[in-house]
Amino acid sequence: MNEAQTAAFQPDLYDYDFENDPVPTLNRLRAEDPVHWSRHGFWYLTRYDHVSEVLKDPVRFSSAAAGWGGANPLARGGGSGVGSEAEKGMSKSLAASFNQMDAPDHTRIRVLVQQAFSRRSIEERRDRIAEVIGERLDLAAAKGRFDLVTDFGFHVPIIVASEIIGIPTEARDDFRDAFARSGVLMAPKRSEESWAAGLEAARWIGRFMRELIAERRAAPRDDLISHLIAAEAEEGKLTDAELSSAVSTIYTAAGTTTERFISSGLFLLLSHRDQWDALVADPALMPGALEEVLRFHHPTQSTSTNRRCTVDVALGDKTLRAGDTVRVGLGAANRDPAVFADPDRFDILRRPGVSNLSFGGGPHFCIGSTLARFEARLAFEAVLTRWPGLKLITTAPMKDRARHDRYAELLVEAP
User: What's the whole-model pTM score?
Assistant: First the structure.
């Protein structure tokens, strides 16, 4: 296929139909145009070696000032950019997140928060996590037929993440709803109405965080916000903007992505009944099952946190120019046939020679990865133990039109 024909394939990486069934598009891009200049104004990478190279090289691929939503406004090719003063304010706030920083600022803030996500800290929460899982399953059992998304997977990590961070129980649902509505700001503008709702939700989060931080300054508690405030007071390490944005980043890492890991993982296992039964018979297979779920079904197939080229970079047969925005397809990389044999087959007995990239790599490797695996394992084990004969009702699920990174409904029936 010549360059003109390849360039003609320009899938909409934010489109519902793509997100609902991304694999054919990703497979075609990986085979025909693995270093793809997208219609959205950023480079999109689909091969494992390219993705890994970007993740592990913070010198040539910077996370700082890497643009927001679409392409970097300074990069060639345009993109959605940011326009109004409100949008610029939101972009500035997002840029204060340590996920949008390079060393030494990224390292400085990450060191402060990573203690809350150490193996020891997570293990100390085992009983509470198990209690939350048990409570949600009790409520599900009372219904008989229930939804793995809204009745179970949605709640467990959000409750745990909120408690770790210090979000009050009475505000948890409002915070989660606002966080979900603000997600439209990370994609091209589809309508003025949805964009305005997203901006208002982001403003609400900003007000909420300012008030909560002020409360914790006055009366510290045993939570992450208070810990970060104490570090700021003692060592002057965090600005207010950094503190607020760090909490939002941690909430994403510890909460919103794990909800899909749990619900989609249970669906995968139930829809491959022989593998579900194998886990029931031999729980020692669980570690491999967790990794295969992560490899096979990364929740966000299309995009990632932006990187910005600091210099011209030759990648594949393309030249990425300094200032260009780059995004990596983690889900696409996890199905690269050059790395994973028969990659479109779900197999918990798979013994890959390399690790999947679902939690990223390099200095920005997901800080919530240990917690996510821990929660998912406890959740899977609890469901398998309680209902080895759990029946899957929804056999052909569709993605949520409001949230393309998760299924709208996954109905099951307890025996």
Answer: 0.90
